[in-house]
Design a protein that fits this description.
- The chain has one domain (about 25-140): TIM Barrel (Alpha-Beta Barrel).
- The chain has helices spanning about 25-40, 55-70, 95-105, 120-130, and strands at about 45-50, 80, 110-115, 135-140.
- The chain has about 150 residues and is α/β, with parallel strands linked by helices.
- The chain is globular.
- It comes from Anisakis simplex (Herring worm).
- This is Hcy-binding domain-containing protein.
């Protein structure tokens, strides 16, 4: 379940920094539809990945948990993977790996980690930070090459 081109934390308009082109509930609805379809199609896990806006990740995790509870669907493992955009060690919406974990903890992902943007060497200190700050399994799938 990949990222959308709409975010809850970042305005699509530099002229209107407070403007958002989607609501939390609209994202929950979209993620719920994705998760339902994946589960009905036989998915073994749900992977919320390439997260650059933690508020969007919270909407996805909320949608998944709501689906399991409200529709009595069999729970399958949920993995969560964020994206650190550069060597600053922050997501596009400005969070560190530790902040990302704290913000999404209530989603109870079985595994958490990072993907995209950086090569393995550049990602290593950030995934180590994730590992130090979670009891969940840690996943990491960097870009094949390095941008730096």
């Amino acid at each position: 379940m990949g990222p959308t081109n709409k975010t809850l934390s970042i305005s699509p308009s530099v002229e209107q920094p407070d403007f958002r082109n989607i609501t939390f509930q609209e994202l929950v609805s979209a993620y719920s539809q994705q998760a339902r379809s994946l589960i009905k199609g036989g998915a073994d896990i749900l992977l919320v990945e390439t997260v650059f806006d933690t508020a969007n990740a919270k909407a996805a995790l909320f949608a998944i948990r709501q689906l399991f509870e409200d529709e009595n669907m069999e729970e399958i493992p949920v993995f969560l993977s964020g994206t650190i955009v550069d060597l600053s060690g922050r997501t596009l919406s400005g969070q560190t790996g530790e902040s990302f974990l704290i913000s999404t903890k209530q989603g109870n992902a079985m595994a958490v980690g990072l993907n995209c943007a950086l090569g393995a060497k550049e990602m290593r200190p950030f995934i180590e930070d994730i590992a130090r700050n979670t009891a969940a399994w840690v996943i990491c799938y960097p870009n094949a090459g390095s941008f730096y």
